[in-house]
Amino acid sequence: MNTFTVKIDLDAPEPTSDQVDVLMDLFEEYHCTWGMSHDRLRAQLTIPGATFLQAAHLAGLVVGEAVERAGYGSPPVVAITVMTEAEFERREAEHDIPDLLSTEEVAIRLGISRQAVVKRAAKLGGKKVGDRAWVFDAAVIDELIEENG
């Protein structure tokens, strides 16, 4: 028997606190977590099964019962992702977020003004966030400091 991670996105609004209580109390054996993804209710479960299809079917039944009990009725499924647990863990490891620095933190590390950092943001590997803010990968900045003394 294999173990699969299944994510199911439903066309349903964010749950109320009462609905969250119902959803979280159900199906602990499947390690079910709930959240919002792109304005959709998302369930993530760990499901045993012989095949992907069997895991998807069982996950659909479990999630369907949970949302029914929580008072959602039968919202349409808009997406379902099934992968082996090993593949899920591999993908999760890829998404480690690097330590990020603000413009001010980079200015302090480099001994230059905040304005100088903004002018050199692209050369420093900065990524624009929103209309005005920049973030920088700390490892990249540390590497630049090491290379340039």
Characterization of the model:
There is one protein chain. This protein has helices at 17-25, 52-69, 85-94, 103-110, 114-119, 138-148, and strands spanning 2-10, 33-37, 40-49, 77-84, 100-102, 127-129, 133-137. The protein is α+β, with helices and mostly antiparallel strands. The strands form 2 sheets. A 4-stranded antiparallel β-sheet has the order 2-3-1-4. Strand 6 (127-129) and strand 7 (133-137) form a beta hairpin. The model has no long low-confidence stretch (mean pLDDT 91). This is Excisionase family DNA binding protein.
Blueprint of the fold:
Layout: E1 2-10, H1 17-25, E2 33-37, E3 40-49, H2 52-69, E4 77-84, H3 85-94, E5 100-102, H4 103-110, H5 114-119, E6 127-129, E7 133-137, H6 138-148
Antiparallel strand pairs: 1-3, 1-4, 2-3, 5-7, 6-7
